[in-house]
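Hi,

I'm pasting everything inline rather than attaching a file, because the server keeps stripping attachments. The sequence lines come first, and each chain or strand is labelled.
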Amino acid sequence: MKKIILFFLIISTVNAENSQKASSIFNMITKSITKKTEPVIYIHKEVKSLQLFPGNIKIVKECEEADIIILSTLKNIPSKCREKLLFGTRYSHLDNENVIGAFFWQKGRPNILFYKKRLELNGIKLDSSYNKYIEK
Amino acid sequence: MRVLFSILFSLSILYAQGIDSLLQEYEEASELSKKTKSESAGNLIIYTRDDLERMQVETLKDVLKSLRFFPYIENRMAQPDTLNQDPIGYYSKSVRVYLNENELLTAVTGSGLILFGNMEMDFIDHIEIYEGFPSFDFGVEPATIVIRLYSKTAEHDEGGRVKTTLGSYGHNKENIYYTNKEDSFSYFVYANRSDDKTKEYEHKEETLKRNKQTNRFYGSLEGENHRLEFHAQQIIGDFFLGPLVGNVPKSASGKSSFINFATHSKFLNDSLTLNLSYIKTQNDFSLKYNPLTPILIPSIGFINSLDRTLEEEAFTTTLKKEWCLDIHTVSVGIQYRYKHFDLTDVEFNIPTPPKNQAYSREDIYSFFLQDLIALGDTHLISLSVMDQIYKRDGSVNDPNTLQLRAGYIYSEKEWVAKTFLSRQEFASEAYMSLASQYGNPQLDSEIYTSIFQEISYETKTTLSKVILGYGVNENTPILDKNFKMQNSDTDIVGYSAGVEFTLFFNQKDKLELQANYTSIESPYGNSNLNHYNYTARMLNSIWKFDIFNELVIHDNYSGVSTGYDYSAAVKYAVSKDFHLNLKGDNIFNSGQKHIYVNQINLVTGSPSDTIEVPVVEQRFMFGMEYLF
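And the predicted assembly:
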């Protein structure tokens, strides 16, 4: 379809802008965790914003190659992934003590949350701009 | 497209100010209203979630009171009726209210505004209002105004909130919602109890009250392609003047119960949608008059009391398919609605013969076809046709109504121009045909022909709009000399014009200025209704405070003095999860008033006694909300 229907373009632009901003946040977080300019991640199972707009993140198909595993569900996480750094996309993912933090929607706003103990256990030190997102 | 976004993405990373500002930008970009709004569907007014929260919108009335061209009014039974023509009980049949994809309606009035026009907004994410005879793909029957309410969902609101509000005259409201998402489904549950108490008025030694208690439950269960909704509402309260003209009732009270089951399903990559909805409503009301001042109903005699139960049900199914064919986006819809109503359960204090109802069942078969034609990146033409076939039992007309609509939208970076031309036919609704005081089962369909033009200009910090409208109504239902409804012989011409300007002077600060004018010829041969409405609204966020100021001026409306409704609100975030709210509505008690007819001079046919009460009562409220 050569011609783009104007108002579908507007709607798709809105959705894309939304996904692009979410991806920017994932990029920032994963860079801060790994201290790498091009973090390598594995997605279990689906994070549409990152898959559409990976930005500077390299998405791999095997857990072993990844610095961080980004989760859309806690169910059926491959055993090889469990030893990696896990990062959630819902508040409930933090119920799993191996998940170091999460970026999620809750109470009508997007949130970022890390647990201090879990960061320390994994030897991760985030810069001071994350202090308000770290819970003791 | 992907290349474009990759460039934008790199720029945003490069210039990002930090995680805080990025989170805020993401929140704004994720407003659900950006996903649901349809610019081609009509002259659109949006109240985003952020607007509703910072304006401290408690009920739908809070936004409708400043609605462009058609501000909020109530009928003589203290029910929402934006197009009210007192003493006719309800006139807003063409104002349609939707909750998500499902139309909320009562079978007798054909519209949901009467039950939901003052609904609390605590479970609503955002509101879209389409004026100027909106697009046909919204529903089964034609509309002049479509109000779309979208409930909060687990997508953004995982977690819960409890809120309580206390106000003047003992007004109070308590509600709670909770929503959660599992891997394959999500759910949302909400419960509310509100006790809406307002000032009482003395007239002819009787006390008139407009207090209402509302209980509501709403729940939804949603999978990837299907949503199931259950909605129940009960309103118990005062019926203000009651439907009858002649005397002030000693007491007027009523109860309405509403339940609704609805499903929404998407198939074939969302191009095929199926909506099903079942609604059952029961309304009971009781009027008592002073035995020394009974009321005359011509066909019955003098009565001292009236007790009525009105039962209604409606079932609606809508199937819509959309195809994208090169420059065409073609939508086809088939819709069916069944309505049943029983108005025969009426008891007076004197014996009366059993009441016959001209018809009690209505089946509506509706079909629509719409083509959106995109000519390049800046021009969009919309062509729509819709037809309804009404089948009514009993010896009444079976209307066949046809709707035609053409629209042209020009859009480039800063300028948008929308033109909508429509010709619509509105079949009479049951309350117009069957109302015991003024009903006429032989009413013809009304015909509205209109043209609306909207031009807007947007910069980074401003949004300016001009809206012009012209319409002719044929067969307008009016009350004749015998107080029966008849189609007017004269065509009613209406003009409307509006100018709006919004200044965004900071990310979270904006000033809105609106002025609009409506002129409608009187079907009774009186002088034209000329109504001016001015609104100035300012929203500011400073530190932990959200501040709202609004002045709504209604001038020259139905012979009442100019109304100045100044409302203000402050919201203080004690923490991210705990907020304190303070709000004043109509703070100087000088807002718009509305006149209701109490007695009519039978010789001249003009009102001999009237009652004037504020549309929005003066009220101060304090509330708190806790998110968990």
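Residues 6-34 of chain A form the longest helix (29 residues).

If the labels don't parse on your end, tell me and I'll reformat.
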